[in-house]
Write a structure and sequence with these properties.
By secondary structure, this protein is an alpha+beta fold. It contains 9 helices and 16 strands. The chain is globular and about 65 Å long.
């Protein structure tokens, strides 16, 4: 059971290992296009169809017709990767149970956005966890945990890809241990009973940059939200997304939000204790671009306010680049 790209390597690894995947459950096709007249299949559905695996796409997981179709598959074990919360009628169905792959080292980062929050919080280690489902979300008994390093160069996109591949291998190893009767599930409290960091769903307001924080904190915030949904600030009253920045060492202290620039390749924005040099951004209504392209297109006159930066742009003609 799964929908996005994150779940595809797991499905492919199970197929490669020769397991009998009797069916795939995924979200209904999504309307796309200008008039929402086309339907786009999920990445998991596309993978399943490529391997001639039956696909179920229920609107409601408690629908009796869907439950009958699921029972008819007679699955011994159900695996959940990046899917919806399941009702007990679904997760209690197979004789060997249902386990989930979570993109964090449970019990830390229960919730919808574990990858983002691990980087935002400045963690050095992340990982994946497989656990048996129970009523409370992300609280079931742990089967396996595998770690991976979070480097200073990682953002949410690169960490996603690391965990996606690690997750596929971990699920295969979990399936082997369950089939052999070797799986030992531990309560999450027995693994860690200290302060827990949650991973709640991220909304637009969550992504607004606060320049009054230390450089490292803002840096982690930006990369923890890149490439999606992206951290943002305001520019001339309009939202600007920042995808990539680098810490500037040994900087003089300025009022947070102050810009200093050479007008060519550097646009440094002051934080509470230094500067961040913006490398890639996206103006409202424009495409994502490196800072050098921004300077090429626009002439800058800068005024500042704490926590929010305002830059008044005047477009000017240079030459036809085409």
């Amino acid at each position: 059971m799964g929908t996005p790209d994150f779940a595809v390597p797991t499905l492919e690894r199970l197929i490669e290992e020769g397991y009998n995947v009797v069916g795939v459950i995924t979200m209904p096709d999504k309307p796309i296009g200008r008039h929402q007249s086309q339907l786009q299949a999920s990445p998991v559905k596309e993978c399943a169809l490529k391997h001639d695996i039956p696909v179920l796409q229920p609107e409601r997981l408690k629908d009796e017709v869907f439950l009958e179709e699921l029972r008819a598959l007679r699955a011994d074990l159900q695996i959940v990767v990046a899917f919806r919360m399941l009702p007990e009628a679904v997760w209690a169905m197979p004789r060997l149970g249902t386990f989930n792959l979570h993109a964090a080292l449970l019990p830390q980062y229960r919730g919808a956005a574990p990858i983002n929050w691990a980087i935002i919080n400045g963690d050095k280690i992340s990982g994946v966890t497989t656990f048996f489902l129970k009523h409370e979300i992300d609280t079931g008994d742990v089967i396996m945990r595998r770690e991976v390093e979070i480097t200073e160069a990682d953002d949410a996109g690169t960490l996603h890809d690391k965990l996606m591949l690690l997750g596929g291998e971990t699920v295969v190893d979990t399936v082997k241990s369950i089939i052999r009767g070797e799986a030992v599930a531990r309560t999450q409290a027995s693994i860690y009973d200290g302060e827990l960091r949650p991973a709640p769903k991220i909304f637009r307001d969550t992504c607004r940059i606060n320049w009054n924080q230390p450089t490292k904190k803002v840096y982690d915030f930006i990369r923890g939200l890149s490439p999606y949904p992206a951290a943002w600030t305001t520019l001339n009253g309009k939202a600007v997304k920042i995808y990539e920045a680098e810490k500037v060492e040994n900087s003089s202290i300025q009022k947070p939000g102050t810009i200093r620039t050479d007008g060519k390749t550097n646009m440094e924005i002051a934080t509470a204790d230094g500067f961040l040099n913006v490398k890639t951004l996206q103006l409202e209504g424009k495409k994502k671009m490196p800072i050098s392209e921004l300077f090429f297109r626009f002439f800058l006159k800068i005024t500042m306010k704490p926590t929010v930066f305002h830059t008044f742009f005047h477009r000017f003609f240079l030459f036809d680049r085409g």
